[in-house]
């Protein structure tokens, strides 16, 4: 037994790994030869001595491979073998003094080390060989924190509002598919504006309507306190009116006949201006908030205000305020009469679109339809000129969708996410196309085919959001007014056939047609 | 790793007079961590756009702007879960809090925010009877929390867009010994296969260490 203890003492430090060859030899020899003296040797020395004695006793003299032990530094090798696991926890001395516990502790340590290493290694190997992500194979259902349990509350968190979209979308998608427009499929649309005019002092306010192009081929633009008229035929600019310094113009709208301009102001007054005499013919007070939207229907002028009401004014009679349309709860920013004059569409900051029917209104107006699908203020409204009961609406920054409604049935017949704030919409009267103007991030105008809603062109150039658009009387040019204080004229539409052939050379078409019409169909305003 | 802390430590009496200077008791430290979780979860819901931004109000906390949900239902849910979480935290039974953001339609986990809570060595070794306190300057703790909140706000720059309606859930890892309360049930870890993990900053009250990390799915591109 003493011998056995000696033996275990002797071979203790290397029991963790595979035995070196010399130890196997020693083992064999100790089984055959009862080794006499090594037990009394101090352990430190025994290590250095052992290989030698083992080698000497067993080296055969045949023609076998005989390693050159002299050339190997066996002491160092052994030191590496034993110290590798033992030295971190300072077990080196104990291996020699405590023969029973030391092997086991070293072994344990080494085993744990090996286990960790091998599991890690095999996981990495498996993931690289089998193409399985390391986490997927093992962690998916297993609790990744040992000795714990995972608890979840039974009632789940409420879902977000229906139709709500992540507002971060606008940070990620910056109209990335604009480049994918298949332009060659459509006719050529010039990408650059035909003309750029400066509009210093143009208010940057989404809720106003500051640009209108009348049938007399005159563009009315409200710049802060003044209204300017730009004659597209002659290029002449006239200042029509100016408000006091503490007031400003909030909306302009041409009567379809082209000889009168309605002007809404911040001071809640609606003014009617005769542009031939350059004189104000009428001031109408009824609202309690600024008038941000105006729309004509024959002699009837509808005005939408910040007080959330729409008032109908019959401009021919002294008692002009003939009807109040109250369905919105916030500022009215979009107002359009349908081309046949039977329906009025209104859009407000309360994300609501209302359609009012004038034919069976009587004294008390109630909306025929209320569309609440938009998630932002609806300023962009446009009636389709070539299809009855088709209304296009566009939502603001939080919504960014373009929707098409049948105002006969109240159904949303089409919609598309434009990825950008929709500020205004203009239909082409002669082609199945429309133009929308947008804000962040491209500040572009987009030309759409309807009803396919394919993007025919993206017109870029404005450096800030394109707040207002208007179409010329010859139906070819669209003017856009943006918060970068410029007006840009884009030749977007082909116009009608006669216009197409007639105005090849001319800049903005001939105004003789519209002016003659304005003579024959002038409205008598007191 | 704190496997030895599984012995349920009783809540230290909250009536103990606060030691002088700015030393923090274990209960104060737990409150600090629980408050952080409450603000962090609310702010996460805002920043990741799980709920509309107009249902949040903003407040100043830790020297940064945090967002708090004003939606009644969300508030009620968070109130229930976070109150229970606070209890566990006081009992030193809380190991980890995980906020899961999953697709509402497919229920696939899109983002997983993990906050590991580790009791410091000091607290583990000394029994709770001796009321361990922390001498860490509250100002420093505050700035560490501030750094985490800032970092969470900055994650919007690298996290993929949550381009669909999302729901969120809170998983709480507790000690095995904890009894499951009524209306709670055990859940899987709901990890994300093929996930990218980003370790965020951590903060420590010197009694509790909180390590934050976010993992998200990188299936696209």
From TrEMBL, chain A:
GO terms for molecular function: anaphase-promoting complex binding; ubiquitin ligase activator activity. Residues 197-490 form the CDC20/Fizzy WD40 domain. It comes from the Eukaryota. One of its GO terms (cellular component) is anaphase-promoting complex. Keywords: Cell cycle, Cell division, Mitosis, Repeat, WD repeat. WD repeats lie at residues 249-283, 325-357, 459-492. Gene3D superfamilies: YVTN repeat-like/Quinoprotein amine dehydrogenase (2.130.10.10). Residues 1-70, 84-116, 498-526 are annotated as: Disordered. Residues 46-58 have a biased composition (Basic residues). Residues 93-105, 511-526 have a biased composition (Low complexity). The keyword Membrane does not apply. Belongs to the WD repeat CDC20/Fizzy family. This is Cell division cycle protein 20-like. It comes from Gracilariopsis chorda. The lineage of its organism: Eukaryota, Rhodophyta, Florideophyceae, Rhodymeniophycidae, Gracilariales.
TrEMBL record, chain B:
It comes from the Eukaryota. Residues 27-214 form the HORMA domain. Belongs to the MAD2 family. The keyword Cell division applies. It comes from Gracilariopsis chorda. Keywords: Cell cycle, Cell division, Mitosis, Nucleus. This is Mitotic spindle assembly checkpoint protein MAD2A. Gene3D superfamilies: HORMA domain. Its main location: nucleus. One of its GO terms (cellular component) is nucleoplasm. One of its GO terms (biological process) is cell division. Residues 1-22 are annotated as: Disordered. Residues 10-21 have a biased composition (Pro residues). It is found in: Nucleus. InterPro entries: HORMA_dom, HORMA_dom_sf, Mad2-like.
């Amino acid at each position: 037994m003493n011998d056995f203890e000696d033996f275990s003492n002797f071979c203790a430090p290397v029991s963790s790994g595979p035995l070196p060859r010399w130890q196997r030899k020693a083992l064999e020899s100790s089984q055959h030869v009862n080794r006499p003296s090594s037990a009394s040797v101090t352990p430190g020395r025994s290590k250095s001595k052992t290989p030698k004695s083992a080698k000497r006793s067993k080296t055969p003299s045949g023609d076998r491979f005989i390693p050159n032990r002299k050339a190997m530094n066996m002491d160092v090798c052994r030191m590496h073998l034993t110290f590798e696991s033992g030295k971190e926890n300072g077990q080196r001395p104990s291996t020699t003094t405590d023969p029973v516990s030391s092997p086991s502790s070293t072994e344990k340590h080494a085993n744990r080390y090996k286990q960790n290493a091998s599991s890690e290694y095999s996981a990495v190997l498996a993931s690289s060989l089998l193409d399985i992500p390391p986490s997927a194979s093992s962690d998916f259902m297993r609790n990744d924190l040992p000795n714990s349990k995972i608890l979840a509350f039974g009632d789940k968190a409420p879902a977000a509002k229906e139709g709500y979209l992540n507002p971060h979308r606008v940070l990620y998608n910056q109209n990335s598919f604009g480049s994918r427009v298949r332009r060659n499929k459509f006719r050529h649309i010039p990408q650059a504006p035909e003309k750029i005019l400066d509009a210093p002092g143009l208010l940057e306010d989404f809720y106003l309507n500051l640009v209108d192009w009348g049938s007399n081929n005159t563009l009315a633009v409200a710049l802060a306190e003044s209204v300017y008229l730009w004659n597209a035929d002659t290029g002449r600019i006239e200042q029509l009116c100016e408000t006091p310094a503490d007031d400003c113009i909030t909306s302009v709208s041409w009567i379809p006949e082209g000889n009168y301009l309605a002007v809404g102001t911040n001071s809640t007054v609606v003014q009617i201006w005769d542009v031939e005499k350059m004189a104000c013919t009428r001031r109408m007070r009824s609202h309690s908030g600024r008038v941000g939207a105006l729309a004509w229907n024959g002699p009837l002028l509808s005005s939408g205000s910040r007080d959330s009401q729409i008032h109908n004014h019959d401009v021919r009679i002294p008692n002009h305020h003939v009807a109040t349309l109250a369905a919105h709860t916030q500022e009215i920013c979009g107002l359009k009469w349908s081309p046949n004059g039977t329906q009025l569409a209104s859009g407000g900051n309360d994300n609501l679109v209302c359609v009012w029917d004038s034919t069976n209104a009587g004294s008390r107006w109630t909306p025929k339809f209320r569309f609440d699908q938009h998630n932002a203020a609806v300023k962009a409204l446009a009636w389709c000129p070539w299809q009855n009961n088709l209304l296009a609406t566009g939502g603001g920054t939080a919504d960014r969708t373009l929707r098409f409604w049948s105002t006969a049935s109240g159904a949303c017949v089409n919609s598309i996410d434009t990825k950008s704030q929709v500020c205004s919409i203009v239909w082409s009267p002669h082609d199945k196309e429309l133009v929308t103007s947008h804000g962040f991030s491209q500040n572009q105008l987009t030309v759409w085919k309807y009803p396919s809603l394919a993007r025919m062109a993206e017109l870029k150039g404005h450096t800030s959001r394109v707040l207002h658009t208007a179409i010329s009387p010859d139906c070819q040019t669209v003017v856009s007014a943006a918060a970068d204080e410029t007006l840009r004229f884009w030749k977007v539409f082909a116009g009608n056939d006669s216009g197409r052939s007639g105005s090849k050379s001319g800049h903005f078409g001939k105004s003789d047609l519209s002016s003659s019409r304005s003579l024959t169909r002038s409205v008598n305003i007191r | 790793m704190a496997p030895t802390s599984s012995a349920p430590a009783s809540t230290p009496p909250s009536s103990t007079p606060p030691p002088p200077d700015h030393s923090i008791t274990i209960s104060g430290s737990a409150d600090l961590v629980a408050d952080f979780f409450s603000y962090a979860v609310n702010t996460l819901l805002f920043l990741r756009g799980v709920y509309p931004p107009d249902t949040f109000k903003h407040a100043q906390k830790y020297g940064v702007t945090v967002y708090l949900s004003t939606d009644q239902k969300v508030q009620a849910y968070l109130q229930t879960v976070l109150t229970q979480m606070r209890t566990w935290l006081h009992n030193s039974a809380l190991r980890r809090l995980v906020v899961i953001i999953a697709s509402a339609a497919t229920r696939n986990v899109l983002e997983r925010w993990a906050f590991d809570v580790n009791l410091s060595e000091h607290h583990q070794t000394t029994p709770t009877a001796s009321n361990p306190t922390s001498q860490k300057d509250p100002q420093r703790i505050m700035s560490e929390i501030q750094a985490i909140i800032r970092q969470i706000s900055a994650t919007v720059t690298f996290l993929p867009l949550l381009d669909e309606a999302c729901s969120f859930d809170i998983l709480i890892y507790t000690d095995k010994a904890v009894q499951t309360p009524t209306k709670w049930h055990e859940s899987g870890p709901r990890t994300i296969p093929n996930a990218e993990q980003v370790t965020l900053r951590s903060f420590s009250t010197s009694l509790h260490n909180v390590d934050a990390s976010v993992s998200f799915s990188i299936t696209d591109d």
